[in-house]
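So, read this over?
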Amino acid sequence: MENIALQLYSIKELTSADFLGTLAKVAEIGYDGVEFAGYFGTSASELKKALNAHGLRAAGSHIGISDLQLELDRMIEYSLAIESPYIICPGIPEEMRNDVDSYKRTAEAFNRIGERCKENGLRFGYHNHAVEFEKHDGLTGIELLARHTDPDHLFFELDTYWAEYAGFRSVDWIESLKERCAVLHIKDMKSEQDKRNTEIGSGIMDFKAITETGKRYGVQWYTVEQEEFEIPQLESIKASLAFLRQIL
């Protein structure tokens, strides 16, 4: 059985109101793990206790570039304490991605962060949006990051929705990144005309092909993320999980 996680940013209104209580609800729905977008002041020991109690695994944490540059040792210590294998940068500001040289400088910073993570038994990854598919001197931002980073120091958490929003096929990027694509963000698109998020399996994206390609390259986690809802959030994440279980 493949590992399916929920990026908790999807239900940020619930986690901000009752972080640990919401973890219990996610576990009850049937997710294998959770990917964090903040810890809401919870100590690592308290969070690890809650994860154990609910049978959930930590599937990585999204940590902003400022904390990665200023508080990396503390972020690593927390990740180790909750047994989270991945530290993931969820995006970068414009000045770190507005031309080839800025991407090269960002790659140097990522190599340093990734090397420190590796020294501590963790992996460092990058999560894309649509902007990283813009080209600079003929190469996309993702290609520039891949070309100028050590595969041991940076993997890619390919956000399949944003890849297709930018006009690409997710499967082509998985094929390109191969084993460097360790985690997939799974979220669906309503239609070519209406590009809003929708429950997985109810939109236009071919997740059977996407997940089959992911399996070939050893994707470790298929992580559900949704940012727009037309039904209650817990119903939505339950429907997305049910569809993924059918195809995985």
Remarks:
- Residues 4-247 form a domain with the TIM Barrel fold (CATH 3.20.20.150).
- The chain has one domain: 4-247.
- The mean pLDDT is 97.
